[in-house]
Amino acid sequence: MESNSVLTIEDVNKTFGGLRALSDINLDIEEGKTHAIIGPNGAGKSTLLNVCIGRLAPDTGSVTFNGKNMVGLQPHEINHAGMVRVFQTPEIFPDLTLLQNVMIPALAKRDGMFCFNVFKDMRNQTDIRDEADHALEDVGLIKFRNNKADTISRGDKRRLELAMGLIQHPKLLLLDEPTAGMSRHDTNRTIELLQKIKERGMTKVIIEHDMHVVFSLADRISVLAQGEIIASGAPDEIRGNPIVKEAYLGGEEL
Ligand code: ADP
Ligand code: MG
């Protein structure tokens, strides 16, 4: 294991019935880096992510985060340890305001899940409210602060989810297809936002189909195909790798 690794995945295997979804996965995520995981549909990307966050148990192997094996821990315990996943399914509270939405994960982190009353306890939490305002400012949503979450656009909902992740000050942020279904304009805004976060040194794993997004953000890229990592390297190495081109794009230019 490299000494500056935040996350180390070792010898992870996962089968579903007869299907080998993950095959001997070994991966190091270095501190402060943005590591993209790309690969065709069905390659095992979501399975790998779900193993990391404790939603799926691997058949074998370990997931070491900050020096501790996460395998066997519950998703909320892994979240508490500082591994935060956003996107893919919008997990926001549609009837609450944006401000309340962002305050919830901060309150949950401080007081424990469900140990607070959303409406009663939020009024006096000035520290957390200020932090939530800051997170909303960060993602460009402060002007909708008091609007209900179901009134904002789809792209804004995804940025709201990002604010809910950021307020937890994650040690590792896992982004599952952050721009899926977004317009080009919204995609570019999200890229800018993720670049801004990157400058602060936050470690990120990003699963993404859109090569424009991947090459705009990644320091390192790993390519999954049929449950195996077929290549890992700097963006330029991956772009020029014939095996990757063949497996991923049927020979097209990346
Ligand atoms: P990706 O995210 O790269 O598109 P997935 O990780 O979702 O790929 O899926 C990898 C393979 O595992 C696919 O063949 C998929 O059908 C299968 N798979 C994923 N989740 C399950 C599950 N819960 N039960 C059975 N098969 C699954
Ligand atoms: Mg997937």
Describe the fold and architecture.
The chain is of the alpha/beta class and 254 residues long. It has 2 domains: 1-82 and 170-254, P-loop containing nucleotide triphosphate hydrolases (Rossmann fold, 3-Layer(aba) Sandwich); 91-168, no CATH class. 37% of the residues lie in helices and 25% in strands. It contains 10 helices and 10 strands. It has helices at 45-52, 75-80, 98-111, 118-122, 126-138, 154-166, 184-199, 211-217, 235-239, 242-249, and strands at 5-16, 19-30, 34-38, 60-65, 68-69, 83-86, 172-176, 203-207, 220-225, 228-233. It has a 6-stranded mixed sheet with strand order 6-7-8-3-9-10, sandwiched between helices. Strands 2-1-4-5 form a 4-stranded antiparallel sheet, covered by helices on one side. β4 and β5 (68-69) form a beta hairpin. The longest helix has 16 residues, at 184-199. 37% of the residues are buried. The mean pLDDT is 89. The structure holds adenosine-5'-diphosphate and magnesium ion. The site of adenosine-5'-diphosphate has 11 residues, from β2 and α1. Magnesium ion (MG) binds at residues 45-46.
